[in-house]
Model the fold of this input.
Amino acid sequence: MTTIGDGEVDGFIYIPEDAFDSEYYSIMYVTFDSLANKDFFSDSYKNSIEKKVDKLDRLFDTRKIERKKELQDKAISELEVQEKTVAENEAKLIVAQKALSDAKGQLETQKEQLTAQKELVISQYGQSVADQQFAATEEQIANTEKQLNDQQQTLIENQEKIKEAKEKIEAAKNDIKEMDTPNYYKSNCYTLCNE
Done:
């Protein structure tokens, strides 16, 4: 049984206490000391309270714009941290790509030198001698080439992640720019609310 709604409770919901934790107040109760001794049911009280409520409304109309700017500034500063991280990671990828390109160039030079040396040995001693002599080196070069190709694939995947992160940041910037102006809701309770 309950005095709320239709007088019957159909169920309970449990919410963790931290769900109510907020760094901002979400409700405000306003009383006016100058009206405390007036009769709640008089026209004088109603006129006085309406004037005060109108004044509050005007204050909150300007507060909406201020609050929007606060929310946008906070969101932009959080995005700037993410942008900085993305830029740092992108710079690391550029350095890694250059190092990888240099390593690939050196490997190509080694392959060309190996081919030239092997052809010389083939011309002097035959194919089987050359195959035996250069088998270990060819295997080492093949392993290095595979490692470099794997590293290249990882770099490509990371570059794609950087691209996606940049796109998300740009989308978030647009969302922040187009953010709706917050609204305040008031419940007019002029008479028995303070009981």
